[in-house]
Amino acid sequence: MIRLGCIAIGISILLSSCTGARKIRSLGAVPELGMIADCQYADAPTRGVRHYQLSPEKLRACIADFNTLELSHIFHLGDFIDIGGMESVNTVMPILQSARAPHTLVLGNHDFEFPDELKPDVPKILGLSDRYFSLKMDHWRFIVVDGNDVSLYAWPEGSTAHQEAKKIYDTQYPGRPTYNGALGEAQMSWLQGELQKAEKAGEKVILFCHFPLLPVDNHVLWNSEEVVELISQYDCVKAWMNGHNHAGGYVEYKGIHFLTFKGMVDTEENSYATMELRENTIIIHGRGREPDRTLPIKLRAVPSE
């Protein structure tokens, strides 16, 4: 499921995915995580505030910092590359793989900048065996969702998935930005099942996606309202974390923290963070342009037997 920068030490746990459940090694005890968004490397000239060619240097500095810490896991929240396909991946992937901690690459829209015939292989290229899945660590469940599931760019043109996405877009989301996407019906059903399992087990949940839900702007998922309605029904959900909007952002709604991490690719200054998950608080230790944050965790109901 995940490409490992090192072998995680721990007991076996269940990793639930769109293709079923399979065992992997535990992600460890009380977690401290490394957080990156929008490395977005390309061998391309600077455009506006996007310094594409500085991304390898920034990522190298980030991983060097992470390697001085005892991190449980590293999440990159989408857009690992911009353009350039395999050439771009081959430039930055070895840097990420030098991390001591295991890592997961969440799928972003620019990650599908490949020829049509390779688009179905993008998850595998980025070290994933499934497009959406969950990871368990201590009393936390990390749910990774795929906001490119229903989109106009992530599937070969003319394929069944592309045709279905086009129909959904034309009938339900006309005029919304085509660089965004949506969670499909099957993924929404799977997500509800994951939340039900987490609620029953008394776990705290953080959802990771490339796309934001809130605050509402031109970066949110096409079906952001539906997703917000679903996740806000579950006391176990503590946060939704994403990239995509390089400016970053934050809002709390119904006790859930909606946090957008700033894009690493923007400006000459770096941006990334570490995140401590404590019993009653999520603490963000920002680096560079990413600010520090202390996010209190809402009290949840005692799970029923």
From TrEMBL:
Q: Which PANTHER family match?
A: MANGANESE-DEPENDENT ADP-RIBOSE_CDP-ALCOHOL DIPHOSPHATASE (PTHR16509:SF8), PTHR16509
Under SUPFAM superfamilies, the record lists:
Metallo-dependent phosphatases
- Which GO-annotated molecular functions does the record name? 2',3'-cyclic-nucleotide 2'-phosphodiesterase activity; ADP-ribose diphosphatase activity; CDP-glycerol diphosphatase activity; manganese ion binding
Which organism is this entry from?
Answer: Flavilitoribacter nigricans (strain ATCC 23147 / DSM 23189 / NBRC 102662 / NCIMB 1420 / SS-2) (Lewinella nigricans)
UniProt xrefs under Pfam families: Metallophos
Q: Using the record's annotation, list all stretches that form the Calcineurin-like phosphoesterase domain.
A: 70-247
Its recorded name reads: Calcineurin-like phosphoesterase domain-containing protein
The record's InterPro entries line, in alphabetical order, gives: Calcineurin-like_PHP, Metallo-depent_PP-like
Q: Give the residues annotated as coiled coil.
A: none
Name the domain of life this protein comes from.
Bacteria
